[in-house]
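Hey, I'm writing a tutorial for new members on how sequence and structure tokens pair up, and I'd like a real worked example in the thread rather than a made-up one. If someone can provide the structure for the chain below, I'll link this post from the tutorial.
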Amino acid sequence: KTLVLDTFHRMRVDDRPRPTPAAGEVVIAVAATGICGSDIHGYTGENGRRQPGQVMGHESAGRIAELGDGVDVWRIGDPVTFNPLLSCGQCAACLADAPQHCASRKVIGVDPAHDAAFAEFLVVPASALVALGPDLPALYANDDVLADELLSGGTDRDDPLWRMPLWDGYADLL
């Protein structure tokens, strides 16, 4: 199942075949996807970057469900999130570690040609994956969920969430 932008201001649930990974890609079984402000602008049509018929969503976490050929660093079941920015890796911007300036960049959840994370499964390049700790619930993989959980007092200081490197030094400010 996927959540499709039917028309601006209207979404629909659609049955689509489970995606198949190409070489160098993985299929993620999505556990949680946040709704980004850019998804709201896509829903309303305000930014012109989303198109009806597209599956949006780019702030997600889940577990690897399938590996494409040549993917040997990851294992089925690994908890992951992903960097939605896809770049060529070969231009001057990419070689200068500035892939956000790549003229060929695509963003999962923005590029209408790439079904994204408002779905049960999505395909991403293995190179875009970010490992999550095995003791970290998939729900916490989204930064918005993390911040909300921490700021709302939903966890105590003994929770593994507070010991994540992402929050080192920041947790004391909350």
